[in-house]
Amino acid sequence: MGLRLRDAGPGDLGLVLDFIRALAEYERLSHEVRADEATLARFLFGEPRRAEALIAEWDGAPVGFAVWYYSFSTFLGRPSLYVEDVFVQPAMRGRGIGKAIFAHLAARALAQGCGRMEWSVLDWNAPSIAFYRSLGAKPREGWALQQLTGEALSALASQQG
Q1: Averaged over 14-36, what is the pLDDT?
Q2: Segments forming the whole domain that contains residue 106
């Protein structure tokens, strides 16, 4: 059978959450996982849908996943596909699964009229960085990701007039 990529459905919520936890463990960020099945159901399958997910299967068994969403580039005047997460089980790496996931997402991006596809990678993750370079990806020089979370996010929101 080999590789099959399919859109995740509501019945995959537990599997998606398992992959999120496995990715967080790999990235040494397990302490940051707050997702649960109800929250994922709301944002992956509710209205409005805020993100999409796919499952990678090898010979019928789930071996990886991806989650992405669309943003908008004012400079390009077109949408962008932002890859939030991609994870392939370590034992299944080296079989072209990750490359197939990224190629699939690139095709989706083009089909949706996107001008680019973007994602972030931890600076210590040399194997992933090397993989992304092999795909032709380049770092966005001169840009640093900024983030508001928790109390800082709430404090800023409370200042709304």
Answers
A1: 97
A2: 3-157
